[in-house]
Amino acid sequence: MLLLSVETTCDETAVAITRNGRQVLTDQIFSQADLHAVYGGVVPEIASRSHVEVITQLADRAVKEAGIKKTDLEGVAVSYAPGLIGALLVGVNFAKSVAFALDVPLIPVHHIRGHIAANYIAYPELEPPFLCLAISGGNTMLMDVRDYTDMSVIGSTRDDAAGECFDKTARVLGLGYPGGKPIDELSQTGDDKKYDLPRAHIEGHPYDMSFSGLKTAVINIIHNAEQKGQEIDKPSLAASFSAAVSDILVPRTIAAALELGYKKLAVAGGVAANSRIRRDFTEVAGKEGLELYIPPMRLCGDNAAMIGCQGYYEYLAGNTAGPELNAYATLEI
To answer: For residue 198, with 0-12 CB atoms within 10 Å meaning exposed, 13-18 middle and 19 or more buried, which class applies?
Structure first.
């Protein structure tokens, strides 16, 4: 099945063409990072306007580079939740118009399901059931993936998402937006034990997480040093912060996999690109005899290929929509 897929949940405009949920013919992405960098974060109105400006051209380029005709398309998949509502509406309405014009099925895809499906592209042999940690700028959750469209949350953050914590830490360190990559690069030369940072635990909820205390601790260290005229060892603070995030994520995920009896463990989302987190998961999963699946860097961030992959399985499950499809800023997976 040849699908056109659309992703506009935040500040990347992406259009892809995929076949049968595993083969990517083309994946076009326009990043708005430079547009938002001056503001230190995503400005929703700017994001929405940029999506409107480029989405048609991206779709035309995708069709051309895939070497197909528009009439070859057999469905349109679109990320409809969760995300910035204005940005989502651009993608949803574009997908509706294409599906209507071509008279093909419209397939709504939950953004986090898409991130999980990125692993199917990277690892064609991977099939449910497995446990997946989805970590991105807006979401951090442990998923029990029983089937392609049957999954449930067994643990999540109580406040900030891991990616949000990276962005806010980068901002106070003066590293700009987005924060994940510059923190990762800066941390390579630092001492990850120099700064004592908190690792929160939620009593009675072993798989839930919290990052607000970690974020506040970093901010306080920097502000206190500024007030006293002391210099911060930024590489070591970045390394200590990355270690703390990994210590919050990795042990919980491994414990959940072992308790649920899973031998297959996947990680997905933009934060999965962090080298410390990837290294720690690889080391611990190997010791516990778990099969670990982490997408390559290009599939960790927001992209439309993952939406097309999940869209294929949503279609097989009968999950299609009509012109009444709406976008949702928040929606349970």
So the answer is: middle
